[in-house]
Specification:
The chain is mainly beta. The chain has one domain: YVTN repeat-like/Quinoprotein amine dehydrogenase (Methylamine Dehydrogenase, Chain H, 7 Propeller), CATH 2.130.10.10. Helix content is about 0%, strand content about 45%. The strands form six sheets. Strands 1-22-21-20-19 form a five-stranded mixed β-sheet, with no helix packed on it. Strands 2-25-24-23 form a four-stranded antiparallel β-sheet, with no helix packed on it. Strand 13 and strand 14 form a beta hairpin. The radius of gyration is 19 Å and the shape is globular.
């Protein structure tokens, strides 16, 4: 079946050197771009779809692989996804929160080899990690100590204090690599390696796990009962899988194909997919294309 877009928008010219994209549960889009060459250090351009202005954020030197995550109140967090361990030094404060007037108000360490960051309605900061962050790289775990990323998926307060970590000695499951994250009002959904099951952590940090027949998906949209996963390994980049929660597993697998604007074809390495809440977003050749689960053929009535 075809999944038609709810909206198609050109990204602003300032988003040409796109570095990071974040989306919110209400369907808004947030883009972080380099103001010059992506290889240059300097101010960053921050654009959000619910605003008519583009903001400029001045980051510390040495920024590599930035990740952007908005708060609901106009503040925005920008983190350096890579934060090496250096002997004899405190962990780098690689995450900075800017107020609505673009002033840096707080910095803290948010881990290294970050995969994604999303902020919930209670202003708690959820950080997921790649396998390098979990098992160690850039000095962490060897020769340095285990990093914050060893938790696989962690939740921090606004000051960067650790509230919860998934990977602990008493954990029922272990995240080797967090492939996808979707933070909603009901908690955090995550798709992880090596089980490729779907995890759900409630707002009070109670985890549950659901079996899936999928592997390799990097984005998942959900209304809490139905789930749309992005392509699996070796599938077409526009292919999605639609599943329904049945007890302890996700079942009734159907296929959906993202319909792009006329003349555009999804390509690996050129088409980015991000999901949050019931929205799936595609970013392709300067276009932002938004899909909503209620628009799927045969979708359940809007809740």
């Amino acid at each position: 079946m075809q999944w038609l877009p709810r909206s198609i928008h050109p990204l602003p010219e300032e988003a040409g050197n796109l570095l990071s994209v974040s989306v919110t549960e209400d369907g808004a889009c947030h883009c972080l771009s380099a103001t010059g060459s992506p290889a240059e250090q300097g101010p960053l351009s921050y654009w959000r779809s619910d605003s008519t202005t583009t903001r400029t954020l001045t980051m510390p030197d040495g920024l590599r692989c930035p990740v952007v995550a908005p708060f609901d109140d106009g503040r925005v967090l920008v983190a350096n996804a890579i934060s090496p361990w250096v002997a004899g030094q405190e962990p780098q404060k690689n995450a900075t929160i800017f107020d609505a007037d673009d002033n840096p108000i707080r910095s803290f360490h948010a881990g290294s080899s970050i995969a994604d960051i999303q902020i919930d309605p209670e202003n708690r900061i959820w950080v997921s990690f790649l396998d390098e962050g979990i098992y160690g790289n850039h000095g962490w775990a060897n020769p340095g100590p285990d990093g914050l990323g060893a938790g696989g998926l962690v939740c921090l307060d606004e000051d960067g204090r650790l509230l919860w970590s998934h990977n602990t000695p008493s954990s029922e499951r272990f995240i080797d690599d967090c492939y996808a994250l979707n933070v909603t009002r009901s908690g955090a959904f995550f798709f992880y390696y090596d089980a490729f099951d779907l995890g759900h952590v409630t707002a009070d940090f109670a985890p549950a796990y659901y079996r899936t027949p999928l592997s390799g998906c990097s984005a998942v949209a959900t209304d809490g009962a139905h789930f749309v996963f992005s392509r699996q390994y070796d599938e077409d980049p526009a292919q999605c899988s639609v599943l329904t929660l049945r007890g302890s597993r996700l079942a009734r697998k159907r296929k959906a194909t993202l319909v792009l604007p006329e003349g555009k074809v999804a390509e690996r390495g050129k088409t980015w997919l991000k999901a949050r809440g019931k929205w799936m977003h595609a970013f392709h050749e300067g276009a932002w294309i938004a899909y909503h689960m209620d628009d799927l053929p045969g979708a359940a009535p809007a809740r």
